[in-house]
Amino acid sequence: MIEGHGDDLYRYDNIKMNFSSNIYAGTDLSALEAYLCTRFDVVRSYPEPSAASLEQMIAHECGISPDEVLVTSGAVDAIYLIAQAYRYEGSCRIMQPTFREYEDACRVFGYQEREDGALCWLCNPNNPTGDVMAVEDVLALAERHRLLIVDQSYEDYTMAPLLQPADVVGRDDIILLHSMTKRYAVPGLRLGYVTASSSIINRLREQYRPWAINALSLEAGKWLVQRAETAIPDLTSYLAETQRLRAMLNEIDGIEAQQTQTNFFLCTIASATAAELKEYLAHDHGILIRDASNFTGLTPHHFRIATQSPAENDALVTAIRLFLN
């Protein structure tokens, strides 16, 4: 496991504006909180060993069979589970720069990285760039590898077309990863799921830990799926605000904000390191950004930003201007 994931809010005691986490910050979770308070008694008993009731609900929502769904303790749990289940394939390809846990999971289970690796890992939409690979290109990529794992954790944060579970359950060469953490803005609950053919899901279940999903998370997951609401009430406006923020940053000499198809994007700073900018913003303005230098292929000058409210976005731009003046 790497140190230095985004949202290291725990390291600071004065943060007022958090641009480091890609998860939408404006979600009202009060109804979920109230519901869980009425269900706290579930902690007195063991949860379901395999989260079967939640898997059935997700399968119904996706229009697939329950044996084509596997609920995991967040998408990261699924990443390590897949790397373990296919460890004898021996080689992998990782579409860099991207989320570091693919690389770390493959290292733990002894994979060698190669351009023609048996397993190929794709984050789509991609963290940290915000790029989205077109569906036809994803399918073409699958043809070049034994197994393509497509992490669609940010699928609810883009308007771009993506693969759907029904598109892949009839194939034995594609796995989709989904994040309830992102969809419902509940990162502390650690909920994700895999959709794939029943034969792939069965292979993953052979490595699955019993009681991987705790009782409160299971209750929360079922409640959230029944409501069929995502974290972002108006995605169109949110993504428009992302482009407004990018445009403002690109007006600052020495800052380049890259294109994106989601709510977060990469930036570079020319005259300082991302670490220096991050510490200044945190300590002088109570603003947290993501130092992206520990993504493979990026530099000490890369940082990532996730769009917040218009007022917070304006405050970030003002603070960066002060740093550079």
Would you write up a description of this structure?
The chain is an alpha/beta fold and 325 residues long. It has 12 helices and 13 strands. It has helices spanning 30-38, 52-62, 74-85, 100-108, 135-142, 165-168, 180-184, 198-205, 215-227, 235-250, 274-285, 310-324; strands at 17-18, 69-72, 91-94, 112-113, 119-123, 147-151, 174-179, 192-195, 255-257, 264-269, 287-288, 290-291, 302-306. The strands form 3 sheets. It has a 7-stranded mixed β-sheet with strand order 2-8-7-6-5-3-4, sandwiched between helices. A 4-stranded antiparallel β-sheet has the order 9-10-13-12. The longest helix is centred in the C-terminal third of the chain and has 16 residues, at 235-250. The model has no long low-confidence stretch (mean pLDDT 96).
Strand order of the largest sheet: 2-8-7-6-5-3-4
Q: What summary fits the major beta sheet?
A: 7 strands, mixed
**How much helicity do the residues have?**
25-40%
Which series of helices and strands comes N to C? EHHEHEHEEHEHEHEHHHEEHEEEH
Distance between the termini: 38 Å
Strand tally, please?
Answer: 13
Tertiary shape: globular
Percentage of residues in strands: 15-25%
Count of DSSP helices?
12
Structural class: alpha/beta
Mean pLDDT: 96
What's the gyration radius in Å?
Answer: 20 Å
Q: Stretches where pLDDT falls below 50 for ≥5 residues?
A: none
